[in-house]
Amino acid sequence: MGKAKLMFVLGISFLLVFGLAGLAIAGTTGKVAGTVKNAQTGELLPGANVLVQGTTWGASTDQDGFYFILNMPPGTYNLSAKMIGFEQVTMTNVIISVDRTITVDFVLKPTVLEIGEEVMVEAKREIIPMDVSASQAIFSQERVAEAP
């Protein structure tokens, strides 16, 4: 009878120790995952940015148009997706729960980019190139065309 009682006490102790340890390492954050698609073609968009507004968290979609954001504390967030050439889309009231993956998919509509003012860049050449160790001659396209 003493041996059975000892085994019972050890079993209960074992369950308490590992049960409490499991609670101590239980997750305290959640995860958001999803895709970003083109509204016209239905194709997934690689390189789109998904941002959690009001924070520094975010992610870019991979080559398959999939993204994920890890280690988000529980709460309610607004997520936005944007990409050059597409309208920004915002999903509001996204609820993050502990140890849960929330799926948020975005569909972006293509938009026309407005052209800004023209920027003129003028290239300049060094008078004495420092990376050339021998003499060289530079001819224009017109001079080459005139050559026999």
Describe this structure in words.
It is a single chain. The protein is built from two helices and eight strands. The strands form two sheets. Strands 1, 4, 7 and 8 form a four-stranded mixed beta sheet that branches. Strands 3-2-5-6 form a four-stranded antiparallel beta sheet, with no helix packed on it. The chain has helices at 2-24, 141-146, and strands at residues 30-38, 49-52, 58-60, 66-72, 75-82, 89-96, 101-103, 106-108. It starts with a helix and ends with a helix. With 148 residues, the chain is an alpha/beta fold. Residues 21-25 have low confidence and may be disordered. The protein is elongated. A hairpin with a 5-residue loop joins β2 (49-52) and β3 (58-60).
Main beta sheet: strand number and arrangement? Answer: 4 strands, mixed
* Poorly predicted parts: 21-25
- The N- and C-terminal alpha carbons lie at a distance of 114 Å
According to DSSP, the number of beta strands is 8
At a glance:
The chain is 20% helix and 30% strand.
Topology:
Blueprint (H helix, E strand, L loop, with lengths): L1 H23 L5 E9 L10 E4 L5 E3 L5 E7 L2 E8 L6 E8 L4 E3 L2 E3 L32 H6 L2
Parallel strand pairs: 1-7, 1-8
Antiparallel strand pairs: 1-4, 2-3, 2-5, 5-6
